[in-house]
Design a protein that fits this description.
- The complex is a heterodimer of chains A (191) and B (312).
- By secondary structure, chain A is an alpha+beta fold.
- Chain A has two domains: 61 residues; 109 residues, no CATH class.
- Chain A is built from five helices and four strands, in the order αααββααββ.
- Chain A starts with a helix and ends with a strand.
- With 312 residues, chain B is mostly helical.
- Chain B has two domains: 151 residues, no CATH class; 127 residues, no CATH class.
- In chain B, 62% of the residues lie in helices and 0% in strands.
- In chain B, helix 1 crosses helix 7 and helix 6 runs antiparallel to helix 7.
- Chain B is flat.
- The two termini of chain B are 37 Å apart.
- The chains are: A alpha+beta (191), B mainly alpha (312).
- Chains A and B meet through helix 1, helix 3, helix 4 and helix 5 of A and helix 3, helix 7, helix 9 and helix 10 of B.
Chain lengths: 191, 312
């Protein structure tokens, strides 16, 4: 075995072990969050030491192994939707491509996740993070206002979860989409 | 045991390296082209969420990889380059590096460049990213590590060389192991919740806001259809490492996995995610088993055992 082959042999094994550990850690964390049970302290300390440090996170980013692959798990979440009120009409950000609209719905869901976390009094978010999100809300509102050529002085944007009746509720003739508002942003525009 | 997992990797076709290289570059290029009409809305200073705000958000999301904004801040003291100029440079060089990699010119360098530029672009819009981006990163990273330029590359054609390819199966095994772990945990995490087990997830997925329901299955609400699809998804993913590696079930499991990804594309609108996953599945478990004619074999790299002893 040449030196190059030996290095590949060692790296290959370490790489696969890391992927396994990251995925196992992700599954455990998701299980605890989903069932609202505290994480084992020893395990948390070990994963903080092993996984959540800058070199490992950077390696994970470069190799696509920074997080687990449990997409849409344990449960599928409701989509986030940003809706504006322009001269009495409901509007949404406009995109030319389907892919960008898809990406924007990911951002909407990220923001809604943050808002839901924020509404939970047991979870702490920093004041700086709140300020950052506040600026993001305003930025999206301003863009929507100008994109849709709105004329009113006060513009409202709401962050919502799209709710469709569950499989159990569906037979009871409740068959319409509803929006569950998580936040409303008021924007005053001085002309 | 050996009889069950009797997949003969000794004669695995190295064409999978070209399949990985060309497949991932082609999909990434089409993906990049697809966001061009809204490129400024996502990345520029006039974006719906400006880059400086996304930069701050990255800090809270423990996102360390440099974004276009970081590159601009880094370069600014040395050269009076604007943010838009940095963005334009990356916008030009990323598809160029993908094209070079796809054709197999300077494969290693173009793979490194493609990976770094892809990550820089992704870090700039981290809050907008989803599964396709992670799997594209994985594939591009393996294009850096594996000798993907040694098979069906323009460079070999121009230099008229048949480069020496040492045991390529070891690279294939790393890729396969990665995907087996990814699929297993993807299924396992679904098992932890309750709504994949009672069919609610499939129902919810088909009624999401951005889904592209081509067929309406609502009339099946009082049948076990959604329950079966939910459990089927869990089983397909969790048992992927087992059945994809058994010779007798490999083709069936691969076909089922491809159907699963085609369904994700059709019902959830995740076209690029599905395309990347199908390419990677075919790279791992279809391309290595393609049998070639003698003339096709002559353009492939030489294996160590093919070289006459006198030339050692």
């Amino acid at each position: 075995m040449t030196v190059k082959e030996r290095i590949f042999f060692l790296w290959g094994r370490a790489h696969i072990i890391l992927i396994f550990i990251v995925c196992a850690d992700s599954a455990y964390v998701k299980y605890c969050v989903f069932n609202k049970i505290p994480q084992n302290r020893l395990k948390s300390a070990a994963s903080n030491l092993l996984l959540y440090n800058r070199p490992v996170q950077l390696y994970g980013k470069l190799t696509g192994t920074a997080a687990g692959y449990g997409f849409f798990a344990p449960n599928i979440k409701s989509n986030g939707l940003i809706v504006g009120d322009c001269d009495g009409q409901k509007i949404m950000p406009q995109f030319k491509s389907f892919e960008t609209a898809m990406r924007f719905s990911v951002l909407s869901s990220t923001i809604n996740d943050y808002l839901i976390l924020h509404s939970d009094s047991t979870q702490k978010t920093s004041a700086l993070e709140d300020e950052c999100y506040d600026k993001i809300f305003k930025s999206i509102a301003v863009k929507m206002y100008y994109q849709n050529k709105c004329t009113q002085d006060t513009f409202y944007t709401s962050y919502n979860l799209v709710i469709f009746p569950t499989l159990q509720d569906y037979p009871a003739s409740n068959r319409a989409y509803t929006l569950l508002k998580t936040k409303e942003v008021r924007l005053s525009i001085k002309k | 045991m050996k009889r069950i997992f009797n997949i003969n990797f000794a004669n695995a076709n190295p064409i999978w390296l070209a399949f990985l290289r060309c497949g991932i570059c082609f999909i990434s290029l089409v993906h990049f082209i697809s966001i061009q009409p809204d490129f400024d809305t996502l990345f520029s200073q006039h974006a719906i969420v400006p880059p400086d705000l996304l930069h701050v958000l990255n800090i809270f999301r423990y996102q360390f990889f440099p974004s276009v904004y970081d590159v601009h801040i880094f370069l600014h003291p040395f050269t009076p380059v604007s943010f838009e100029q940095v963005l334009l440079t990356i916008r030009i060089f990323y598809p160029l590096s993908l094209l070079l990699l796809m054709t197999g010119l300077f494969s290693r360098v173009s793979a490194i460049l493609s990976l770094l530029l892809q990550l820089t672009l992704l870090s700039s819009i981290d809050a907008y990213n989803y599964g396709v981006d992670v799997f594209t990163t994985i594939a591009l990273f393996y294009c850096v590590v594996f000798p993907v330029g040694k098979v069906y590359s323009l460079q070999n054609y121009i230099t008229k060389k048949r480069p020496l390819l040492t045991n390529h199966v070891k690279y294939l095994h790393v890729l396969q192991a990665h995907f087996c772990i990814a699929y297993f945990f993807s299924g396992f995490e679904k098992l932890l919740g309750d709504n994949w087990r009672n069919g609610e997830s499939i129902w919810k997925m088909m009624h999401g806001y951005d889904t592209t329901n081509i067929i309406n299955f609502d009339f099946l609400y009082n049948t076990p259809f959604f329950l079966i699809i939910g459990w089927g998804t869990i089983m397909l993913e969790m048992f992927y490492p087992l059945f994809i590696n058994i010779k007798k079930t490999r083709k069936a499991w691969l076909t089922a996995t491809i159907i699963f990804h085609v369904s994700i594309a059709l019902f959830m609108g995740l076209y690029f995610f599905s395309a990347v996953m199908i390419i990677l599945n075919l790279t791992c478990y279809y391309a290595p088993f393609i049998t070639l004619s003698v003339s096709q074999k002559n353009v492939l790299p030489q294996k160590i055992e093919e070289i006459p002893a006198a030339t050692y």
